[in-house]
Amino acid sequence: MTQRPERHRQIHLAAHFPGVNSTTVWSDPRSGSHIDFSSFEHLARTAERGLFDFFFLAEGLRPREHKGRIHDLDVVGRPESLTVLSALAAVTERLGLAGTVSATFNEPFELARRFAALDHLSGGRAAWNVVTTSDAFTGENFRRGGYLDRADRYTRAAEFLATARELWDSWTPQGRPRPFAHHGEHFRIEGEFTSPRSPQGHPVVIQAGDSSEGREFAASAADVIFTRHGTLEAGRAFYADVKGRLAAYGRHADELKIMPGVTWVLGDTAAEAQEKAAEIRREQVSPQNAILALEQVWGVDLSSYDPDGPLPAIDPEPASELAQGRVKITDPFAVAAKWRALSEAKGLSIRQTVIETTARQSFIGTPASVAEQMAEFVGADAADGFILVPHLTPGGLDDFVGKVVPLLQERGAYRTEYRGATLRSHLGLREPVWKG
Amino acid sequence: MTPPTGRGPLHLAAAIDLPEVHEAAPYAELALLAERGALDFVTLGDSFARPGPDALAVAAGIAPRTGRVGLVPTVTTTHTEPFHVQAAVATLDWVSRGRAGWLVDVSATEAEARLFGRRPAAPREELWREAGDVADAATRLWDSWEDDAEIRDVATGRFIDRDKLHHVDFEGSTFSVRGPSIVPRPPQGHPVRVVDATAPPARETAARHADVALVRAASALQADAARAELRGLAARSGRDPDALRVFAALVVDLGGGECAAEPGHGGGPLPTAQGPAYRGGPVDLAELIAGWHRAGAVDGFHLTPLEPRRDLERLVNGTVALLQHRGLFRTFYPGSTLREHLGLARPANRYAQLAGKPGSLVGEPS
Ligand SMILES: Cc1cc2nc3c(=O)[nH]c(=O)nc-3n(C[C@H](O)[C@H](O)[C@H](O)COP(=O)(O)O)c2cc1C
Fold first, then answer.
1. Domain boundaries in chain A?
2. A188-197 residue pLDDT tens
3. Chain A residues with CB inside 8 Å of B88's CB?
4. Which of A78, A128, A132 to mutate to test the pocket of ligand 1 (most atoms within 8 A of CB)?
5. pTM recorded for the entire structure
């Protein structure tokens, strides 16, 4: 094989533990526990064998409900992220450990402390995905309740992160605590932090959220963006938009890595991969799941519709509370219109339409062609790397690491060893300057 | 029915705190040492008020490096969300495969309140009542998933049986939680709750909610009185007092090596700022432990080594070895969960019971 380093820039890879979603094909006989620690250990060790930048855990603070009842079709339940990651620090050596934690239902002192602990325990491998949950449904589990307006989510998140950074910087480089005081709009706190500066200075900060406010927050303060823009065209537009926002904050384009969540299917031939991909989609979108996906857009009971029949002719209910605990669809009319047009043009049933329009696999093909597609994607400035979301727990990453990683390495598009010990070093990010 | 004195098997636990150490390896070494001595559990203290790592994170960090010993971090209830507390403790139970405990504590100072800026400091009585509410809500959330809720029924396409997940709708005086938890019921059903019941405001909460209560006593007689009081309070709150283990908490300084105990106190503990402290040799400490336990004054001991590395080594290789040699303490773990070490049953699920299934609530207040 010839080395074909198309670009200087190398691909960054991360592994998403497939949790609560319809991506996971739990009905597959190879599907194991999504709760036992051995599953987390298996996926993390596989990712580390593949020299990945980090391992990623999402968060949800209340089981989803549909029509007032707990949603029972997809995988439900997950252990608490920071505790799992602290345990994973003991069974991995280089892999970054990223946890999603809401800035709404936590307090800066406590969370800054927990992330500092993870960074110390892992020797500098911690990352925090700052999300901004604000729905009253989730709030019912917390003292705070669902008190925050959508518009205030990012002002709180930004102040939360700024406060955490003040705490992470509050010890002197000589290792002595100094008093801090933060008097802002959302937080008025003071005292002494309990942890010395951690190995990375500040854990790596990830942002996941797509609105203009979310992108601005990421441009101003995040090291990595986890995005859903997984097609080449959408990826390029998102990439250009976000990277363009950095200069206003005095930041260089390389200081923020853009990593879409992607899925993949491998086959020995292109045809076999396509066939497998179609089969996985049919398992992900069962007849019941198809009606449910439709109800999430339409916001009304559609249980009398035939999943193999045509889409409903009625209009969506815009302010529906039918589906609780999911990211809301902002413009259901537009989605419904798009789905209807597609269904009519191609003569698709409800289930076929949902299969076509939701979460298709991003990369399908032989290992060589998937490696090629990924390198192209990064070469075309559609991403700096990928967060891989397997459809099986816990072995869903095995084939990728065994078959695609070596090919990426042969192309010179991927690292062949970890150079440094910290997540920042994997991502090529500088340690933040101490602002004591 | 209830024996007036504790003549069950002896239980031993030790603190493995290392002030200012933030890496996992030194803690793991101590925990492994304790495990070599077949101790029931190790504790990790915590407070927002002093430098030191997050105890629960450290416990999780040493879980995969140990196999049997129970891991009991302090988690305070005053400023932390009850929903997060129960999820983190349940997760510690998952990652340690049934070895998690939770030392319930409160944050009482104004300085701690200012770190959060949400409410002023409150009297300890109030904080301990709230801690009781948090412990109560936590056990309800641990029960909010029945053990067999996950069905993976391919025929109907259902991953869970939604009738086996329950809203808890807990209303405490300072918070409410709707539930269910996001974490499935942990391996032990309820991770072990430990409460230091020395201070009067903590006593009622310990009697109602603790699986293990710690008392600081300077003599077997004092320990016996404290144990009797806790058992009485537990019975009055509707619990079986035999489901409550009472441990004497002692600071131990074994720095004198094989020397005899300090002259003047005959091997008994001395009063210090941290409570009763034993200073002397490992052999005399074994005498003290055996004597108090034989007298039925306590179910076990929680020992805080003054110098962790030195004293824990002497404790395990000296005191524990001697107790084992005399047949007073186990030489191996017959079970694998912390509840099994403590001889405590796995609690039945309260919601499963409501659904008319057999089983009783062991050690639970009504
Ligand atoms: C790729 C991606 C992953 C996300 N993961 C989570 C998550 O794990 N937990 C969560 O509460 N919210 C998650 N969110 C939701 C965001 O934090 C945010 O609340 C939501 O996207 C709405 O913000 P926006 O209007 O800026 O998009 C995710 C969002 C995106 C785009």
1. 12-268+361-427, 286-358
2. 999 999 999 9
3. 80, 82-83
4. A132
5. 0.96
